[in-house]
Specification:
With 222 residues, the protein is α/β, with parallel strands linked by helices. The chain has seven helices and six strands; from the N terminus they run ββααβαββαβααα. It has a six-stranded parallel sheet. It is globular, with a radius of gyration of 17 Å. The chain starts with a strand and ends in an 11-residue tail after the last helix. 32% of the residues are buried.
Amino acid sequence: MILRFTQLNSPLNPSPPSRPRCERCLRPASHCLCAHVRTVANRTHVLLLQHPSEYRHALNTGRLAALGLQRSQVLVGEHFPDLDAIVAEYHSVFLLFPGDGAVAPQPLVDHTDPNMALLIVPDGTWRKARKILYANPILATLPRLSLENGPPSSYRLRQTREPAAVSTIEAVVRTLARLEPDQDFSSVLTPFNVLIEQQIQAMGMDVYGRNYGGLPASEERN
């Protein structure tokens, strides 16, 4: 199992939380999601480039995605000096981010080589994800993948002006499902769905209805 959480160029460690937290999923110990994590044996290595603001975020879906995938890695920061060397280790590297020339994911046929394919995913709001792209020029040289229109996002606690927008974990699962159609990645979403229900229950349905009943969000999320 390849699962590494590496923190690069992140701010000083935040103050100790007021209540115990699980060091694996970073949720409060009373709402730990680890029991809901089932690791799927993906063949395409997933590298999440996580903006520092997402690292301790209560709705850190990028971390949940990595926990649910056998071959995954999370780097935290904006600039990643080792990224060129990481990219050089793989035969095929793709960037999951919309833009000119981006195409829908297609099945990868040859996965006999463990270093065959790498999927790089910026993790943060659209604005912060773009900062990661600008800070790491090698990303601009990679072929881009983008998601086709699909089911609405289950991310009911974040609003966006883009109806087709989905959370990081949903984007990763949908992309891997296209790259590796013989594998079932649906279980990766289980802790994410539990997280959403936990948050809604904690705030109460009245508060949830008032705050997430269609009002525009201040910022979109990747």
